[in-house]
Amino acid sequence: MKTEVKKIDGTKREVGIEVNGDIVKNKFDEVFQRIGQEAKVAGFRPGHVPRDILEKHYSSQAHQQVLKELIPEAYNQAIDKEALEVIDLPNIADVKLDRNTLSFKATVEILPELNIKNYKGFRVYYKKIEVTQDEIKHQIDSLKETRKADTIDDKFARGLGYPDLAEFQKAIERQIFIEKENLQRQRIEKEIVEGIIKDLDFKIPHSLIERQLKELVKQAKVEMALKGRPREDIDKQEKSLFSELEPEAKKQVKIYLSLAQIAKRENIAQDDHMPNRVMEFLLKEADWKEIP
Questions:
Q1: Across all residues in the chain, what is the average pLDDT?
Q2: Same domain for 155 and 227?
Q3: Looking at the structure, do residues 83 and 197 belong to the same domain, yes or no?
Q4: Of 52, 75, 109, which marks where a domain is finished?
Q5: Is 275 found in the same domain as 130?
Q6: Could you tell me which residues are beta bridge partners of residue 288?
Q7: How far apart are CA 104 and CA 97, in angstroms?
Q8: SS3 164
């Protein structure tokens, strides 16, 4: 098999593929053999029709079946041979097939080449998390506003599943602590990611942007429906949602590709948990500094 790769742009390649010799001949033999098992030709029993008769009656069918089977086989072998990281289905063109040779061109979109530097040792600033009595009181006061007929006492706490008011206050403290902890973790992760992608300049594959954009629009429409927006209004918003959410889709894809590149370098598994595993790695490698 012969292959030739031409660069179209940062993420597109045209792969010329040519298969000849026994591979094509054997595929035709295999296809005609299967056709012959069921072919109904006057004067012959199924399975006993001579090859020249089969070719006379079923040449077009065999031709299409060979293309259907041989193109995917040749394409996958070519991609493996050229070590291309393809991210979407190929566009097949210029297909030519005779009894000895198959040739075609496959235009594919591949992962871009990223030159990520200095992703280890990011300086991150953290603050020791504390919960003040004022914060606990504010949370309880807010609860009072929603339950003006209730007195916030031991009896009220028991109604919520706590033995007394003191235990309820401890639960409020834990809740505030966890909220603060999550917010700080989100801030640190965002700063690390922003630091990684800020100087990266590469062409983002259109198919990935389109896929992510559709998902973001779908999520936005679901959220609007949950808020009680009429279906007609939601459908009218769809075009503007695609326009508004496109920058975010591009950013999310850029982040994902950057994390995937780091995962590849650090031998981190490329599965559904990859982004979380890469972030754990980056946090471990970061330079932590406490601030007052």
A1: 92
A2: yes
A3: no
A4: 109
A5: yes
A6: 124
A7: 9
A8: coil
